[in-house]
Automatic annotation (TrEMBL):
One record GO biological process: translation
Organism from which the protein derives: Anaerocolumna jejuensis DSM 15929
Annotated GO CC locations: ribonucleoprotein complex; ribosome
Pfam families: Ribosomal_L4
Summary of subunit composition and partner proteins: Part of the 50S ribosomal subunit.
Ribosomal protein in keyword set: yes
Gene: rplD
Name of this protein: Large ribosomal subunit protein uL4
GO MF term list: rRNA binding; structural constituent of ribosome
Record's keyword terms, sorted: Ribonucleoprotein, Ribosomal protein, RNA-binding, rRNA-binding
Signal sequence range: none
InterPro entries on file: Ribosomal_uL4 (IPR002136), Ribosomal_uL4-like (IPR013005), Ribosomal_uL4_dom_sf (IPR023574)
Function: Forms part of the polypeptide exit tunnel.
Length: 206
């Protein structure tokens, strides 16, 4: 099992914690990690782009000039794709980009992302993360104590003071164990977990 140091909000090491290998020590499956990221981005796409084909643009019902004898190339409609105001050849149409992954594939992708953070030593465990009031500067001070800038911060339960204090920091995202995903874990340089968040993640995914 991986042994990770535990820090307090002042940035001082106060102990260590054993991480469960079935969640934080699996064999990293790069293919599933990539697939999970692609799926999340694809599922976010609206797919509402649309343009008209030559069958849908108005006008062009009459042949612009006779077939032969004009010196021009033959034309059947002024709404052909080569004409100004004509239709688009392969016009984009509304579509659904989303696709599904199996539950076990999703779980393995998430475990792989968590494991990669442990292997790269980009995981911090806090004994607790409590703020008495909503103050962004207090949250920034905690990050400075830990020497962190861009981080995904996961707490065991939703804490409004923590969420509201961090939401104005563009390089920080807060989450709870039930909402973490592969994309966010990889997007932020460091993964910060509270001890109760570690326990819940291991409980759900072990």
């Amino acid at each position: 099992m991986a042994n990770v140091s535990v820090y307090n909000m002042e940035g001082k090491e106060v102990g260590s914690i054993e991480l469960n290998d079935s969640v934080f020590g699996v064999e990293v499956n790069d293919h599933l990690v990539h697939m999970a990221v692609v799926q999340q981005l694809a599922n976010k796409r609206q797919g509402t782009q649309s343009a008209k084909t030559r069958a849908e643009v108005s006008g062009g019902g009459r042949k612009p000039w006779r077939q032969k004898g004009t010196g021009h190339a033959r034309q059947g409609s002024t709404r052909s794709p080569q004409w100004k105001g004509g239709g688009v050849v392969f016009a984009p149409k509304p579509r659904d980009y989303s696709f599904k992954m199996n539950k076990k594939e999703k779980q393995l992708a998430l475990k792989s992302a968590l494991t990669s953070r442990v292997e790269e030593k980009k995981i911090f465990v806090l004994d607790e993360l409590k703020l008495s009031d909503v103050k962004t500067k207090n949250f920034v001070k905690i990050l400075d104590n830990l020497k962190l800038s861009k981080a995904l911060v996961v707490t065991g339960e939703k804490d409004e003071n923590v969420v509201l204090s961090a939401r104005n920091i563009p390089t920080v995202l807060t989450a709870i164990p039930g909402t973490i995903n592969v994309f966010d874990i990889l997007k932020y340089d460091t993964l910060v977990l509270t001890k109760d968040a570690v326990a819940k993640i291991e409980e759900v995914y072990a």
